[in-house]
Amino acid sequence: MAGYIARRLLQAIPVLLGTTFLIYFMVFAMPGDPVVALFGDKTPPPQVLEAVRERYNLDQPFIVQYLLFLGGIFRGDFGVSFSGQPVGDILAETFPVTLRLAVLAVFFEMVAGITIGLVSGLRKGGIFDASFLVISLILISLPIFVVAFVAQFVLGIQLGLFRTTVGPGAPIQDLIMPAIVLATISFAQIVRLTRASVIDTGGQDFVRTAASKGLSRRRIVPIHILRNSLIPVVTYLAVDFGTLMVGATVTEGIFNVPGVGRTLYQAIIRGEGPTVVSFVTVMVLIYLVINLLVDLLYAVLDPRIRYAK
Amino acid sequence: MPSNTRPTQAHFVAPIDETPLVAIDSVKAEGKPSNLWRDAWRDVRKRPMFWVSAVMIFIIVIVALFPTLFTSLDPRYCQLSLSNQGPGGGSVLGYNRQGCDIYARIIYGTSTSLSVGLIVTFIVAFLGILFGALAGFYGTWVDAVLSRLGDIFFSIPYILAAVVIMSVLSQYVSVWTISLAIGIFAWPATARVLRAEILRVKNSDFVMAATAVGVTRFRILLRHVLPNSIAPVIVITTISLASAIVAEATLSFLGVGLPSSTMSWGNDISQAQVDLRTNPQTLILPSIALSVTVLSFIMLGEVVRDALDPKARALR
Q1: Which single residue of B114, B132, B140, B244 could bond B191 by disulfide (Cβ 3.0 to 4.6 Å)?
Q2: Nearest to A272 by CA among A54, A37, A62
Q3: What b/e string do you get for B217-250 counting C-beta neighbours within 10 Å, with b at 16 or more?
Q4: What residues of chain B lie within 8 A of the CB of A287, using their CB?
Q5: Which residues of A touch B284 (CB under 8 A)?
Q6: A3 CB burial (10 A radius; 0-12, 13-18, 19+)
Q7: Which residues of B fall within a CB distance of 8 Å from A250?
Q8: B151 to chain A: which residues are within 8 Å by CB?
Q9: B250 touching A (Cβ < 8 Å)
Q10: Residues of B whose CB is below 8 A from A247
Q11: Nearest residue to B118 via CA among B157, B65, B67, B45
Q12: What is the Cα gyration radius of chain A?
């Protein structure tokens, strides 16, 4: 077990170095003045340009710049936003809101996705299954911002069920609609994955054994089929975390949820390059850590992974 | 010699009229051999979803190539006096906030979405096949280096990466740069799929046979291994076309995509946000165009997957 954890941690190091280097390289190794390029068609005051130059040590050779940037990350210093607030402080403020939204969204997509996937898989080829195959295809085709606007228009404006934007403090009842929207990105995939997994598990020998020794369907379905079908679904959630982050950026922007995503969204919209770079770096780091944690969690839960090479 | 033996056949084949056991040892030379592609085509032809998506994609391509066939209006000609007016007076779907014709803008936006989709798909397929094939076939340090490289690119969600690239390249925005920004981070998935398939195929008997008769390694990869492991790549490529179209629209929606002078559904949706309450069709109509286009390619990908992946077929 300790060997596995050590190996997995060692593997994470080159990826961590590689991703941060890549981001830094994309921004600061471009021809021309990277600081001017970051501000696009805007001309910021010279003091701001100077501050950014100083912040990223642009008078140093490239590799030194990168190492200083990396050192900053390890000390928890992610840079300063456009308005001069440290990115770390903004994160501390906004992260709990995003976490609440994400947990709510994952809860919705898991409950709805697994239930529908299970029923579809058990009644493969039935009318319920066929109609949800079509619905899931349509849902996969809808970009997140389209879902968000349709929800805002139909549920918020026309039916008046929800507030179209989130109020101060982000109370949980205001987060329900953004969470449902965010959940639709992965919902269809979870339905299909659960369905495929349920069909696969349902044909296994141990299910037949359970049935032939006289166990009731009520016991076979949750204990034998469902539990064994959930492994790929949970794996998918970790892999899909990147989609969730992009989705959260757009959703939080549209519904005005005061989270990490909206901060990034507004920085993108306003063309505040340095803030965008800081937040993308942070998100990539979070993504790496989540994937590492899930891998380690697996080794705890499933001994087969621990011993496999 | 009976006609059912090949001249080069080394071993004896009993003539048909002499033995009833002919079926065991004879080689049917005339019958069409079973073939993955022919089987797949036979399977695909029978599915209504294939024909629906094929017709939709055909129409979309025609619209993209010949927009003038569908509208005589200039999408760039806008009159503020017509701002947010409904349909009527030569306009099928009404006008947006700037007084431009919504229908004409949707028609002209098609080619943008489709070109980005195709260029990204080309970049992703090229990089994915190149790196996946080299990593899977040559193994050892080539595999180690390329797979770690893939891990690094895979760890940055490609839309976030494209946002960073497009923020830096904000002066050089075009269909080409946006496609490059999306494609350069989207290839690892394709490479992984191909690598796994090549690892499976390269231990086959026919590869050993080719090695035995002295075919060079590179030629084995090109002529024997790659053609036999390309099926999953085709499946993932069809789907990546749809994802690329969504990615372009998302970037344009965020304002780091194409400039507003380019017709793009993402741009139109982004600009229509403020009119959601007053004139929802300026937002809903380009959204429908975008979603229907994506749906067509998703449906095609679905059919192709079912046809080429026996596991997916079993689930149907």
Answers
A1: B132
A2: A37
A3: eeebbeebbbebbbbbbbbbbbbbbbbbbbbbbb
A4: 155, 157
A5: 149-150, 153
A6: exposed
A7: 250, 253-254
A8: 14-15, 18
A9: yes
A10: none
A11: B65
A12: 23
Q: Is B274 on the interface with A (CB under 8 A)?
A: no
A236-240 CB contacts, 8 Å cutoff, 24+ apart: A236/A186, A236/A189, A236/A190, A236/A193, A237/A106, A237/A110, A237/A186, A238/A290, A238/A291, A238/A294, A238/A295, A239/A291, A240/A186, A240/A189
Mutate to test the interface with A, among B163, B184, B241, B278 (most CBs of A within 10 A): B163
The amino acid sitting at B264 is S
* CA distance, residue A42 to nearest chain B CA (Å): 11
Q: Taking CB atoms and an 8 Å limit, are A250 and B280 in contact across chains? A: no
C-alpha closest to that of A176 among A64, A278, A228, A251: A251
- Digit-by-digit pLDDT tens for chain A (309 residues) are 777 778 778 878 888 888 888 887 877 766 566 666 666 666 777 777 777 777 666 667 777 777 877 787 777 777 777 667 787 888 888 888 888 888 899 899 889 988 998 888 888 878 888 888 888 888 888 888 888 888 888 887 778 777 777 777 767 778 888 899 999 888 888 888 888 888 888 888 888 888 888 888 788 877 778 887 887 887 787 777 878 888 888 888 888 888 888 888 888 877 777 778 888 888 888 888 888 887 777 777 666 666 654
For residues B5 and B17, give the distance between their C-alpha atoms in angstroms, rounded to a whole number.
14
**What percentage of chain A's residues is helix, strand, coil (to nearest 5)?**
80, 0, 20
Predicted ipTM > 0.90:
no
Residues 151-190 of B with CB under 8 A from A: 151-153, 155-157, 159-161, 163-165, 167-171
Number of Cβ atoms within 10 Å of the Cβ of B32: 7
Distance from CA of B9 to the nearest CA of A (A): 44
For A33-62, b/e burial (b = at least 16 CB within 10 A) is: ebbebbbbeeebeeebbebbeebbbeeeee
Residues from chain A contacting residue B273 (CB–CB below 8 Å):
149, 254
Q: Structure pTM?
A: 0.83
Interface test with B, best of A16, A22, A28 (most B CBs within 10 A): A22
Q: Is B309 helix (H, G, I), strand (E, B) or coil?
A: coil
Cα gap B4→B2, rounded to integer Å: 6
d(CA B27, CA B16): 11
Q: Which residues pair with B95 in a beta bridge?
A: B101
With left for phi above 0 and alpha for psi between -120 and 50, is residue B78 left, alpha or beta? beta
